[in-house]
Amino acid sequence: MPIISFASSKGGAGKTTSAIVLGTELAASGAGVVLVDADPAGRLAKWAAIKDIPDGIEVIQSAGERSILDEIDEAASKAAFVIIDLEGSASRLASFAIGESNLVVVPSGEEQQDADSAVDTLAEVSREGRSRGKSIPAAVLLCRTNAAVKSRLEKFIQAQLRAAAPVFKTQLHRRTAFSAVHNAGAGLRQLDRGEFNGVEKAIANAQSFASEVIDMLEGQEATSDAA
User: Fold this and answer.
1) What DSSP string describes the chain?
2) CA gap 212, 225 in Å, rounded
3) Mean pLDDT lowest among 60-64, 140-144, 154-158
4) How much is the pLDDT for 222?
5) What is the CATH number of the domain that holds 133?
6) DSSP annotation string for 163-224
7) What's the confidence (pLDDT) of residue 91?
8) pLDDT tens, residue by residue, 16-54
9) Which pLDDT value is given to residue 223?
10) Alpha-carbon gap, residue 208 to 166, rounded angstroms
């Protein structure tokens, strides 16, 4: 079963939001999903406690580096997808989870500090792969971006990121609906359209992201089978 980790060396990059977005969209398509909260801040666990989470999703809070591998194995035995929200700093727990991952998603904004942190995280993923004698697929997810025409700086930052790793074509734009899931709980589809703007556009954004993730994972399988 695919294991997808969300990693960033910088807080506030969008890890938890994008993990929730992906998990709820996969569950909406009928797939079983386990979300593993491996961040001591416990943001996924807090989200899950606000209201009933969508059908098909289970959230577990990691007990730490001594337990994470067993937690991943157990989650993979009962769900089609395992999604791990990692803490912002490098740790043995993060290394263990990254090493087990079929895909590492590195969220980044279009600010230079975010891009620098994303490049640092990608280097960490590469080092972990080298230590294990394998390649660990990773891709950058641009978050909190403007849907309008990009500035020269934003274009420069995106070029930096594309030089470091694959970048998702889909961007999670700056939308009220994405930030609302933290406060309202559940997923985008459960948000009150009368209270939050742009919910349908956010759902379309989320669907495109989930489709790209599936395409990446299927591409890895095809490459593996050909080898």
Assistant:
1) --EEEE--SSTTSSHHHHHHHHHHHHHHTT--EEEEEESTT-HHHHHHHHSPPPTTEEEEE---TTTHHHHHHHHHHH-SEEEEEE-SS--HHHHHHHHH-SEEEEEE-SSHHHHHHHHHHHHHHHHHHHHHTS---EEEEEEEE-SSPPPHHHHHHHHHHHHHS-B-S--EE--HHHHHHHHH-S-GGGS-TTTSS-HHHHHHHHHHHHHHHHHHHHHHHHHHHH-
2) 20
3) 154-158
4) 56
5) 3.40.50.300
6) HHS-B-S--EE--HHHHHHHHH-S-GGGS-TTTSS-HHHHHHHHHHHHHHHHHHHHHHHHHH
7) 87
8) 999 999 999 999 999 999 999 999 999 999 999 999 999
9) 56
10) 16
Tell me the C-alpha distance between 17 and 27, whole Å: 15
35 versus 148: the higher-pLDDT residue is 35
The pLDDT of residue 225 is 54
**Domain range spanning residue 180?**
3-226
For residue 50, what are its two tokens?
Answer: 């606000």
Return the minimum-mean-pLDDT range out of 107-116, 140-149, 169-178: 140-149
Any idea which residue has 């599936």 for tokens?
214
Residue type, 96: F
The owner of tokens 């079983």 is 32
Residue corresponding to tokens 């980790």: 5
pTM of this structure: 0.94
The tokens for 173 are 């734009």
Per the model's pLDDT, the better-predicted residue between 187 and 149 turns out to be 187
Counted domains in the chain: 1
